[in-house]
């Protein structure tokens, strides 16, 4: 092969590499979903969201009013509005529901019976609220690393989820800060539910 042909071949390969690297255009934008995150004080909402955002645990401060975090995943960005869980805040939760596309409810699976009963009542209210009742729910039974933690089956039975949430889109998952892979998997399942709801809306 002549030197000219070899030079042409190398130039063509350089051209193909240039096109592959520079001319394929930006990647498609990830969809964004607006979620509301609720649960009693001490359930671990702030710590879980901060860990998903790779924030230092030393800087975590319990939410007293509300805060917003953009939680990035490979196939979506979740804009999570976390609401404080204190007694004097919970009565205002519903003011922040508008515009939500999904719900994250965090409960302390190792809490006292009184706190568990309160969490149960708050979840029932959320599941039946007009602005939330048709939305996908991710229910996280947090603090599974604690000795007193109740199992997912115990939580499901105590919260009466099967009869109450029948016909709704919901996921109940165990979680703890020690198992981030399981937590990310739970959020991936929620994203799947959000995408399904989007597709249904398009078909309609």
Automatic annotation (TrEMBL):
Record-listed Mg(2+) binding positions: 46, 63
InterPro entries: ARL15, P-loop_NTPase, Small_GTPase_ARF/SAR
Key words of the record: GTP-binding, Magnesium, Metal-binding, Nucleotide-binding
Protein name in UniProt: ADP-ribosylation factor-like protein 15
Species lineage: Eukaryota, Metazoa, Chordata, Craniata, Vertebrata
Annotated family: Belongs to the small GTPase superfamily. Arf family.
Family annotation (CDD domains): Arl9_Arfrp2_like
Sites where the protein binds GTP: 39-46, 85, 142-145
PROSITE patterns recorded: ARF (PS51417)
The keyword Magnesium is annotated on this UniProt entry: yes
Organism of provenance: Odobenus rosmarus divergens (Pacific walrus)
Pfam families, sorted: Arf
MF terms in GO: GTP binding; GTPase activity; metal ion binding
